[in-house]
Specification:
The complex is a heterodimer of chains A (764) and B (111).
Chain A lengths: L1 H9 E3 L8 E3 L5 E6 L12 E7 L2 E7 L12 H4 L1 H5 L9 E2 L11 E2 L2 H19 L4 E4 L6 H13 L4 E2 L9 H10 L6 E2 L19 E5 L3 H4 L8 H7 L3 E5 L5 H4 L3 E3 L6 H14 L5 H7 E2 L1 H8 L4 H8 L3 H13 L3 E5 L1 H4 L4 H14 L9 E2 L9 H5 L6 H4 L9 H6 L5 H10 L7 E5 L12 H8 L4 E6 L4 H6 L2 E4 L8 E4 L9 E4 L11 H12 L9 H13 L3 H7 L1 E4 L5 H4 L17 E2 L3 H5 L19 H6 L2 E5 L15 H6 L4 E4 L1 H6 L7 E5 L4 E8 L7 E4 L44 E7 L5
Parallel strand pairs in A: 8-9, 8-17, 11-12, 11-15, 12-13, 14-23, 17-18, 18-19, 24-28, 25-27
Antiparallel strand pairs in A: 1-22, 2-3, 3-4, 4-5, 6-7, 6-19, 10-16, 20-21, 21-22, 24-29, 25-28, 26-27, 26-29
Chain B lengths: L3 E6 L8 H10 L8 E12 L2 E10 L7 H5 L5 H5 L5 E5 H9 L5 E4 L2
Antiparallel strand pairs in B: 1-4, 1-5, 2-3
The chains are: A alpha/beta (764), B alpha+beta (111).
The structure holds iron/sulfur cluster (3 copies).
The site of one iron/sulfur cluster (SF4) has 10 residues of chain A, from helix 2.
Chain lengths: 764, 111
Amino acid sequence: MVKEKVLERVGEIVSKITKEWKHVNEDGSYTVRTCGWSPPGDHPVGCGMKLHVKGGKLVKVEGDADHPITQGRLCIRCLTLPEYVHHPQRITTPMKRAPENRGKDIWQKISWEEAWDIIVPKIKEYKAKYGAESIVVFGGTGRQACLYYYPLGFASIGTPNVCYPWSGWSCYGPRCSITDYILGAGYPEIDFAGTYPDRYDNPNYVVPKWIMQWGKNPLMSNPDGFFGHSLIDLLKRGTELIQIDPRMTWLGTRSKYVCQLRPGTDTALALAFINVIINEELYDKNFVENWCYGFDELKERVQEYSPEKVADITWVPAQKIREVARFMATEKPGAIQWGLAVDENPNGVQLGHAILSLCAITGNLDVPGGITLGPPAALLGKWRMETRRNLSPELWDKRIGAKEWPALSTAMATTHPDETLDTLETGKPYKLRMGWFNSSNFITPTCSAQPDRWYRALKSLEFNVVQDLFMTPTAMAFADVFLPLPTFAEADGVVVTHFGRNAVFLGAINQALRVGDTKSDIEVCIELGKKLHPDMWPFESVDDFFSKQLKPELGIDFNDLREQFIYQPKYEYRKFESGKLRSDGEPGFNTVTGMVELTSTLFEAWGEDPLPYFQEPPYSPVSTPELFREYPFVLTTGARKFTSFHSEHRQISTLREIDPYNEMEIHPDAAAKLGIIDGDWVMMENMFGKCKAKAKLTPIIHPQVVHSTHGWWYPEKPGEEPSLFGVWESNINTLIPHKHIGKLGFGCPAKQMICKVYRIEEGV
Amino acid sequence: MSRNGLLIDYQYCTGCHSCEVACKNEHKIPRGKWGIKLTEVGPYQIEGDKWEWNYVPVPTSLCDLCEDRVKNGEKPTCVHHCLGQCMEYGPVEELAKKMTGKGKKVVLFAP
Ligand code: SF4
Ligand code: SF4
Ligand code: SF4
């Protein structure tokens, strides 16, 4: 059969045990097999699970042992899914509120028809009077909406202004863009045998000798779709771990080396590693000669970064820098797993460049057990790109910040985040009038810097639509119309790890039940799209939509995917030799020079240094010593916990029992000097804002550094203004300044600010 | 009759709480009580880069070794969902034998 052949070619069926995705039990209850992707949960990890539904209720979640990656394992965010789905505070019908009642809990339930009757004429009016660019769509981090908020803006509404509001686009975008500029490939991920049905036992697979987590703690964060506990699988198989982290994490205690660096000095450390590897001639000469551009320039540049000098900058001893560099260069294969610390750093483009250079010169790119590289085109990415054809070139040119930030706007199809705040504040180059918040609760400390400033600026919008599952501080402050979203248990969809940019699998999300009258992101895109731009939405249904995406690429339709459960694309190593990294089929990398650009041709064209360099954080003991006397701690933020995904889960009592409040970590010696004991309420404060947290005294952090978690609001507190569910009480992002970003427009200092700490009598 | 138990290789216990929550779900255990509960030793520095930091989940008197699941041929729910895959269930004699092949950080409970 043709279909069978196609499957042979593009993927392998993992789950041969049962093709049944829905099983009806004798008592009328039923079980649906599915993969997870927030809401709620996290990034597209797609863990396999079975959802048991009885009497219209989700009664049980059981991990699916047949899932090749997760093998039955589930984290507590999915184990508490029934609590989330049936939470009494969930909003499951559309609602409207009069604009003068913004900030007040005065809502009226309406039907979807009524909602469309309000929204559609508004959009038409703004487009006619002020142009489509007067409408802005905001997205958030990591939820399924990441696949749909661009098309919602471009093809359903028809605006060029889609905004991810985090200053400097500081999440995933920078890493993808750097990879694009330097390697011309999809997202680089460690080889964890993710595409093999038989995983680590596959004969083509080699267990990495080492894996370095660079500013990343995947056990809790499951970043970008990487199942974090795969690292435990690899530890058991003998992989040595290396941590680059300001904190001694639990993973650090199971690692061979830990470089506990001063937050924000990462680029200096990376350059020192390269210094040692090049000067001691430990690099992969063959790879450098054949596949790298600009090696001599890099060699010259790193002479400025001797281990001794870098030890002073980073606090990592010179001897350790040498040892780690030698280990990385001589043990093969190995891989660096770069984290959010690359994005949340104004010097992060240079850090990313240096890390990719390290991977290249140690010969670990696209080899078994090294770093896998995605092909140039993202899995299921074609449609997302094509939705832009709905916008005329003139309209596309109006995208906020596109001209000012050519590097960012070449790689990302969004506005420039910081420029968007400026536009809201100044009305320049034009006034924004309507906002659509798609799964983005960004006045909580998630994806905006100085959320208090955004909060004031967003008040200038005349009409707002918010899509979410609960009444969030952002929705309470701004929504005129609230459109309720279903959880992943309640709507059909697909999950593709790494957002398709180097996917290890594609899985079906199967609807098990539906609570109330909600519509999923794609349902909203299609319905609204048909009303405003019907030519862009030639799909009869959600099924039809997914089938039309899947068919051309995989040769299967949505129903086939449900039955097969999971597709793992076949992975090919050494694509730079076989020509599979370039669209012209020539060997090499998909860059200007066709090589790994150790010296970047593009950076030069954009007025940036073509080589990586270290720059001090904007505020630090070195760059602002005066201020540091007043604010004597380096503040790093955003390390994750098992109990939440950014601002999700704050109302789930099982999870709040484990992590009840925002937490800050401080060294016992530093705390003693301030009279702070474990569990005290403290304030972190700097020139920009302040934030309450419970102090956790721990030796894992340097005495001059403090860390705060993020994403906190308190659903149990009054929702109405000025409280907004206590959103300003533990809002760590109020301490992170707006527009302190790198030359190419990327990277904010969320992990390397300064602050003072003092004990307070009253908590939240 | 042989007694069954839980073997925990806490070298790999990441403190993820999945055992706790899975057990609470299965046995409908309310807030404030547990069928298995994490304990934490550390973190503290031993010397240099050597640190002590262990999580060990301890079954309580509410643990019935997931009798009903086991009868149905399933694993106890804590074992099944454990993110670190560091828990095993079985007859204590067998588990004790397995222990000898593991590292230093291993414990056997016979609740
Ligand atoms: S990582 Fe956790 S939240 Fe995400 S899908 Fe898996 S079990 Fe669910
Ligand atoms: S065996 Fe069952 S009852 Fe015992 S701790 Fe594990 S989950 Fe709870
Ligand atoms: S589920 Fe496993 S890894 Fe997680 S806390 Fe329990 S024993 Fe440890």
